[in-house]
Amino acid sequence: MLLGCDFSSAPSKRKPNVIAWGGLRSSVVTLQRFEYCPSLEDTQLALERAPEWLGGFDLPFGLPRELVETLGWPTEWAAFIAYYHSLSRPAIREAFAGFCNARPVGGKFAHRATDKLAGSSPSMKWVNPPVAYMLHAGVPLLLRAGATFPGLQPANTWGSRMALEAYPGMLARECVGSTSYKSDAAAKQDATRLLARKDIITRLETGQHSLGVRLRLTHAQRDAVVADGKGDALDALLCLVQAAWAQQQHAHGHACYGLPASIDPLEGWIVSA
Q1: 8 A C-beta contact, residue 141 and residue 85
Q2: CB atoms within 10 A of CB 214
């Protein structure tokens, strides 16, 4: 099974975590179903029900090495995750704010190498979007669900549930440039964003993007994704396509699912960046 997950550190019935489940045959990834998880517990249970999967998850798996070393936190990934999870969100915010306050204007945040290439938010951001809290909630959840992490853990420890860091915005920008395709605010869910979602789906279905994987949807599935003005279902699909690309790389003999050989094993890497 392949999956793409649009993840929130505080899901709810109004804005659940969305998992797009699918399968890859040749270069076509077929969406099987969406699963909507209104809590972190529901998300973990959904992942535990499937005995084998390769998933692309829209959350960071690591922090910038510069930040971690400056704060004096553990620099081995497993020890870092355990320590980071032991902190409260206010403690994380205080530590990161202190780091930023000591730096010059224009360079407040530290960046991972992959953030710069993918154009993603710094993984230490705690607001707009709060990706630091997504890391805090998400990686321990994935570990509890039995996931292993290529590029961050030795290959001889990998299991049957494989987690890759994905970033839907990177693939979406390739399809529609800087045009916005979603908004959590109902007043901003306008015709322009709806057309952008249609354009992204069309390009995914026809393979008009650099990953060389085509998406197959039913008409009903397509209509449901277009109608989702928040873009959560589409983000899950974009992550699914990135996971499918990674599976294709693995099938072609790439030992680490298309991830570069020179990944910093503390920071991690966004698949296909």
Answers
A1: no
A2: 19
Cβ-contact 233, 205 below 8 angstroms: no
How do beta strands 214-216 and 28-37 pair?
Answer: parallel
Predicted local distance difference test score (pLDDT) of residue 255: 85
* Averaged pLDDT for residues 109-127: 96
120 DSSP 8-state letter? P
Amino acid code (one letter) for 268: G
C-alpha neighbours within 13 Å on the C-beta side of residue 54:
22
pTM of the model: 0.97
d(CA 272, CA 166) in angstroms, rounded, equals 8
- 187, containing H or E segment: none
Tell me the per-residue pLDDT of 167-190, one tens digit each, with 9 for 90 and over. Answer: 999 999 999 999 999 999 999 999
Angle at 209 between CA 208 and CA 210, to 5 degrees: 140
**SS3 assignment, position 211:** coil
For residue 30, CA distances in Å to 4, 23, 196 come to: 12, 5, 21
* 215-237: average pLDDT: 97
Of 56, 22, 249, the closest CA to residue 166 belongs to 56
Confidence class for position 231, pLDDT limits 50, 70, 90: very high
Query: What span, in angstroms and rounded, lies between the C-alpha atoms of 248 and 156?
Result: 21
> Going by DSSP bridges, is the β-strand pair 53-57/2-6 parallel, antiparallel, or unpaired?
parallel
Average pLDDT for 63-77? 98
pLDDT tens digits for 244-255?
999 999 999 998
| CB contact set of 141 (below 8 Å; sequence gap of 6+) | 40, 43, 44
- CA 256 – CA 158 distance, rounded (Å): 11
